[in-house]
């Protein structure tokens, strides 16, 4: 059940079909990490079965002109948020930094802890970053007028619909994401288009917004955003290679996980929280001065996006969630590149377009002044 007060999500299936049948529009799609280990359930496959390649093929079959991976945006989020983390660790100001990629959680802090609103990272979420880069960098590269581009996102989440509708425009008044649909809604569309996901061949996402790392993939599980950020922050902060990228202490399905990590002789206290009840408990302690952290990841849904309100319905929820999480970490383990800053397409994006992390253009496209 979606805990984000967004239970009655707006469906955009007919709008997406209209766009796909409109010859004047270039319609691109991005798929969130947690979708690839869950949508197979709608087609008779096991929970946690990885269908990344089949999904790319299926999306092409129903007519998308560009098939992208929100995991690319997750890697980009790590670079931008990693920069903010390092700045705040160095200055000692505005700590703890709180992650900002879950709109359900951001909604919660705005309503319930307005005095802490300076704490979340100013980064947009991977969904919004991927949309902004598609309509700016990619559109420019391909010679497409951004006004003729439609960005569709496939999310495990109902709250992502209202996030996409927030006034985040970074392309001359055009939204970063036009339509956000859920995993269940995409499954419905594929069935309407007679596309059987199970029997699709394995294909890959399109370059350059299709290349991603293991770090980006684990965004779909609670603790994954924090772990991905630590892999990058450790190397950037120390200048040393992180030999073991697995931060096991922040993994798992317990609602509150804490760890202390040594970075350049400094003890960095981190926590991964899932479920808004757990977020409330920890934030109340912070307000009272009873808890001291440097970095906190918060996800509204218990266990994170694998358990989002837009995912396939299931019995044996705990077991299904465990299997979806195992699927994501399996992808991470087998990925050639497991650190976001080593993603070649992200490196090229900065070289060709953004300059450096936190640049003026990066702020314009990828950050917000305020999450209000
Ligand atoms: Fe959406 Fe993920 Fe947040 Fe749940 S945890 S509200 S699925 S972003």
UniProtKB/TrEMBL annotation:
**What molecular functions are annotated in GO for this chain?**
2 iron, 2 sulfur cluster binding; 4 iron, 4 sulfur cluster binding; ferredoxin hydrogenase activity; iron ion binding
UniProtKB keywords? 2Fe-2S, 4Fe-4S, Iron, Iron-sulfur, Metal-binding, Oxidoreductase, Repeat, Ubiquinone
- The regions listed as transmembrane in this protein's record are none
Identify the domain of life. Bacteria
Protein name as it appears in the record: NADH:ubiquinone oxidoreductase
Q: Organism source for this protein?
A: Leptolinea tardivitalis
